[in-house]
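Lay summary. Proteins are chains of building blocks that fold into shapes, and those shapes determine what they do. In this project we predict the shape from the chain. Here is one chain we studied, written as its sequence of building blocks.
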Amino acid sequence: MGTRTSAAAPSALEAGHAILSVQALVKRYGGQDVVRGLSFDIRRGECFALLGPNGAGKTTTLRCCLGLVDPDGGEITMCGEPVPKAAREARVRVGVVPQMDNLDPDFTVTENLRIYGGYFGIAGAVIQARIPRLLDFAGLAGKGGSPIRTLSGGMKRRLTLARALVNDPDLLILDEPTTGLDPQARHLIWDGLRQLVKQGKTILLTTHFMDEAERLATRLAVIDRGALIACDSPRALLAQHVEPEVVEVYGDLARDWAERDGRRIATRLELAGETAFCYARDPRPLLDDLANRAGLRYLHRPANLEDLFIKLTGRDLRD
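And here is the predicted shape, written in a compact code that computers can read:
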């Protein structure tokens, strides 16, 4: 997103080294461990997704990485700097999209970008040269003079993402970046993020959209109750934890069918409401049995990250 004006990156950021390293991270609130010995590394040029139910410790982990809260144990190194000791120095090379938009409502779109860039000590002419590309990236070309109050929620979210790129960061930390966006805007942002990774940017992403993680992540970690429970590429995790074929059976009779016949035929079966999720390596016995069943509807599909997520973290609702 433009020529870097900062000093050359230290050797710790060369290819093959972790741009973010989290080792044995612990964070407690009120005597309760919110993050429990969490460890992961993110290499330059990859998109790393951090997945988990509500309350799993994702946002707390991000806040520790950014030096916004002090950990109670463990070590963090970000962009070659120890955190929290040198968090300010590290954050200069990081772009952040928080869960909630925090744009300044008193300024226009362009003014928000220009003022934010000033916080990094970037020359005004450099920021001005970057703004057209940033607006184009966010699908906001022609909106530079618009007051923030006139933008839709989706436009504000896209502007927040563009703002995170104003300092041409080495690392992007995106906390649920496409929440509230319609499908067209989500695809626009996904295309932009893929291009950033191709350009060598590094992304740490949290999301509740499993299709988003499946499309973008080169590797992902699943955490639950503050602890790491799985970490690898999406394809490798699916192969390791989930049967490759899924048959979803719907209808008022689905539960009766599942208890009477489905559990006998499927490798693994889970019930959720009026839906039976049947997992199998060979789906043909299931499909043959269902072919002539009156009152049942079914869908045959390959396993996906949602199946992985549910298997590892459970189907119970988290608040």
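What the prediction tells us: Residues 1-13 have pLDDT under 50 and may be disordered.
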